[in-house]
Amino acid sequence: MHLAIDPSRCVACLACVRACPTDAIALPPEARVVEIVEENCISCGECIPSCPHQAISASGAVDRALAIAEGGNGALILAPEAVVHFHPASPEQLVNACYEAGFRLVSRGVIGDELVAQQYLKLWEDPDWGTLIRSTDPVAVAAITAHYPELVPYLAPVTYPCVAEARFLRRLHGDSLPVVYAGVSAPGGTVPELDALLSFADLEQLFALREVRPETLPRTHSRVPPETRRHMSVAGGLPLEMVVSGSSRGRRLLAVRGLENVPALSRAVGHDRIDLGFVDFLSHPGALGHPAAGPKDELFRRRMLVQQYELPRSRQPVVPDQPDVQVGAAFAFGHRREQAEPAAVLTILEAIGTGPNGKAWDCRACGYPTCHRFAQAAALGRASLRQCVPWLSKRAEDASRDASTDALTGLASYRSLQQRLSHEMERSKRSGDSFAVLFIDLDRLKELNDRYGHERGNTVLRSVADEIRKTIRATDLAARYGGDEFVVLLTRTDRAGALRVADALRDRIEQSGRRLGFLAGQITASVGVAEYDPAHPNEGPLLEQADRALYLAKSAGRNTVA
Asked: What order do you get walking across the sheet with 179-182 strand by strand?
């Protein structure tokens, strides 16, 4: 079964990433929609109901199945839960529809359950095994073989019911019999026994292509069907005796449901060496609990419908006690997953940073359970930092700081100066206190840049910024206006006080030039002073007044205050 993303519906909301237990959904840095990472996907279907935009669907080989149906010589194994999808059509109408579509033989999936149940009962009665994990669920087996190889040796050596049934049908009708399986949980990859896998939605599409409507067909079988009654099995392939007797016969039966419990199984068996007995492990609450079967809140309705159509048990075996069919299986270790470069992972973790407590954020907002798992995916190009909320928050803070701070000098930016100037004017009007502005210009910075280089000039600018910071109060504001110009806003200061500060700044700037190794007079500054008096607020923009005063200082010979 193949999971597919509909690009027209996907908005990259990451809901599916959060739901996926195997990191099988990626959002590459430049992508606008998510992608399925096939090597990690186990077709658990958790992403299907998690998507609020219905952008993910499960599909099979409709074209191949259609060709088999049109050929008229193929068999269809119809999983028992099909009656739920096609309700209110009856099981008889559904089987008739499959024949009408062109299949030569239609089997209801019971034979496979019976064959597998026989083998499990033999294992159950053997006292020599320790831990044994049920292997009828393709999703559970895929999770173990791909992501928990330490559990592979403990998988029961029994194949899936649908595969066992396909082998049985070919034993009866010839090895060339094409077999199609329709169900919600099908084996992944290439399965030699099954020529095509279908979801029930695919089967519905096949009916439409063949112009077959199940609900219009007779409610009695048009052909005598194969056996549809159970004798010793329950749905899924376990023996009824195991389910009923449980641990009463000295055998331990541990029921485990959900992929989230696999790590606990792995630790218990692989690390702690605990003998768990027979582990009845399913990825979901049965096939009817698989996300592809329908909404979770309709689980009990689906069970009710299946039970409603379940036939009474056969008193006699429905398959031979010693069938000439192999139901064994050997499960191989999954391929080694692609590993990210440790250096790349570390770089991403450093970009994310840590929380206030010094530990990793691990907030899961990105869709991954830990920052380290996210960094691994990002290093492989399957995720991007724009998924990381702490990183985005940090970037927003940096952007805000960059917008308000000059990168070279660390002083306030022009934008911050304008905002503070407006605020100070309003405060001055309310309080009646005046304030002043100093406009500072370095006299010969261009000549210095031409002679010593711009990096030397940047050193001078940083030094001047330091001198300004040391001179003014914490309540004042120093900003880089642009190039070699600075502006200082002095709160609650009149013109006389501003002139004293300006002269002190002029002197300190000249001294800083000497400390940097320049000759006397090479590093000097001219300063223009303007006062804002709330009693006379209409004398023109304050910065323009300070700029005019600076022009006067320059005209007076530089290294002066006006």
From this structure: 105-107, 75-78, 179-182, 196-198
